Amino acid sequence: DTAVSQTPKYLVTQMGNDKSIKCEQNLGHDTMYWYKQDSKKFLKIMFSYNNKELIINETVPNRFSPKSPDKAHLNLHINSLELGDSAVYFCASRGPAGTDTQYFGPGTRLTVL
Amino acid sequence: GNSVTQMEGPVTLSEEAFLTINCTYTATGYPSLFWYVQYPGEGLQLLLKATKADDKGSNKGFEATYRKETTSFHLEKGSVQVSDSAVYFCALSDQWTGNQFYFGTGTSLTVIP
Fold first, then answer.
1. Closest partner residue to A105 among B43, B46, B89, by Cβ?
2. Which chain B residue has the Cα nearest residue A101?
3. How confident is chain A (113 residues) per 10-residue block, as mean pLDDT?
């Protein structure tokens, strides 16, 4: 069973469109994250949720909006896509305090044309 | 604040060579330290970790020792294999900001036969 899954794996779309990426974890973790990885492999945290509550909201354009319907899911909606949004987006989850390890999903490669 | 600085790549080694990837950190509290590995086309996976000073993390022949006096967590392997080709990320998690991870910029390793 996949611990952290993301859909879709690849997403190709036109500038100006709105798209969503879904993430689900079956580890029973309370905390989930979204990261953006650019073409140079630099990893930047975007958001973090703990038990459906937003706890980290880095400097990210407000075109990006996370939504957590329950603690096993954290989806990422992106409005008015721009060329610079092209990247690989990773979802991750983490167990309770004292269990520091993050578990990453396989990533979603977003290409904006 | 918290930050991680790791050796820039790319690094290219011959099979069976010795590997060192340097990582130093800055933290306000008592961080846990991690090495994550990202194989081509995949998400990040935990390689090893250490949660307190002088701890040594090890896995798959890789080792790293938590050195508080030099604020370092260098990754080493005595004899690399082609299958070790990947991007390696050093990271920390601080008890005071336990929900947030701080990643280094990643070091790409290519091992040639």
1. B43
2. B46
3. 89 97 94 92 89 81 92 95 96 78 93 97
